[in-house]
Design goal:
single chain; Rossmann fold; alpha/beta; three-stranded antiparallel β-sheet; 244 residues
């Protein structure tokens, strides 16, 4: 897949297969295209796909509107979660869950049914009850915003989770909580693509594969040990591996 924004090409020929049940970590230096990859898959409209295709469950993902992708089970945890003033978190979460259920031909949840699910998910990510009574992310700390993203993940249970630098700005305790939520979401029926700069989150969430993006290309792929090598050596030595 090739992707541009304006006149600037960002992804220059990414070829990647993610199977159900797998965890893939996408690493690389700033500006390498990691977040672009996640955002394109989720349907951010400002990016232009100039080549290639994306197949999701045998369907053309790029032909789907962003809201259709979400209902089909593609979830993006934002690097910088946005605030939604005036939109109560409880209502936002229930509406999201009901939209997914309706898309599958299921009935909306009753309030008490949803509250039971919500309470269990909140316990997983250690979110206090008063947060879901406030506007989405408004007044949340950085760690609370990231935990709120994983709360959504726990409730929606998407087929493909795209985690865009979910570890960014987290202290050790928040990183542990977020990682625990992701690990509880992991399943043989779901897949995770996790964008990160550092290997520290991989101490908590073990990837099946690690891919390193450099200048819009996958310079190298490997297992968990590749992340450890990057932690020791940095990224510069991989530039010679990038296709000309």
């Amino acid at each position: 897949m090739e992707v541009s924004i304006g006149d600037t090409q960002i992804l220059k020929g990414i070829s990647l297969t993610v199977n159900i049940g797998e965890v893939h970590a996408i690493m690389g230096p700033n500006g390498s295209g990691k977040s672009t990859l996640a955002n394109v898959l989720a349907g951010r409209p400002e990016y232009k796909i100039t080549g290639g295709e994306v197949l999701y469950k045998g369907q053309n993902l790029l032909a789907m509107a962003p809201e259709t992708r979400a209902r089909e089970g593609v979830f993006l945890a934002f690097q910088y979660p946005v605030e939604l003033p005036g939109v109560r978190s409880w209502q936002f979460l229930k509406t999201s869950v009901d939209a997914m259920r309706q898309h599958r031909g299921e009935k909306e949840l009753r309030v008490r049914e949803f509250d039971r699910l919500l309470e269990a998910a909140m316990e997983t990510v250690e979110i206090e009850g008063d947060l879901v009574r406030r506007s989405v992310n408004e007044g949340y700390s950085g760690g609370e915003k990231k935990r709120n993203e994983i709360l959504q993940l726990a409730l929606l249970k998407p087929t493909l989770a795209l985690l865009d630098e979910t570890d960014s700005g987290l202290d050790i305790d928040a990183l542990r909580i977020v990682s625990n939520g992701v690990n509880q979401y992991k399943s043989s029926e779901r897949a995770i693509v996790m964008v990160t700069h550092y290997q520290r989150i991989l101490n908590y969430i073990t990837p099946d594969y690690v891919h390193v993006l450099v200048d819009g290309n996958i310079a190298m792929s490997g297992g968990r040990e590749l992340a450890l090598e990057l932690e020791e050596k940095g990224y510069e030595w991989l530039r010679e591996e990038v296709p000309a």
